[in-house]
Design brief:
By secondary structure, the chain is mostly helical. It has four helices and two strands. It is globular.
Length: 108
């Protein structure tokens, strides 16, 4: 089970080709991410029936193998957003592109 899980997650993550970071290649970062979160992903698979390989692959892609600011500072590996009526704890990071009304072009 773990070998099959690792295989599919590695295939998806490595095709993203996010490059190098701090002297560690992306394959090593992905392997570390999988080792760190595979048990949680398998437990959640048993509850929600979402394959652990899909959960891990999505987390790797959305969080850049756990290196994104959102993953590091808010423990949000999937880019999940809250809405204006949310009253719980939150973390602000504006990543939505906005259209300039006068130029009709995308701005950040």
């Amino acid at each position: 089970m773990v070998r099959r899980l690792f295989f599919w997650v590695a295939i998806v993550a490595l095709t993203a080709g996010r490059g190098l970071s701090q002297g560690v290649d992306y394959t090593t970062l992905v392997n570390r991410y999988i080792q760190l979160y595979q048990d949680i992903a398998v437990k959640e698979m048993m509850v929600y029936r979402i394959p652990a390989s899909i959960t891990l692959a999505q987390g790797i892609l959305e969080s850049n193998a756990g290196r994104s600011r959102l993953a590091r500072e808010a423990n949000n590996h999937f880019g999940i957003k809250c809405h204006k009526d949310w009253i719980g704890k939150s973390f602000h990071q504006d990543d939505d592109e906005k259209m300039s009304a006068s130029e009709n072009t995308k701005t950040r």
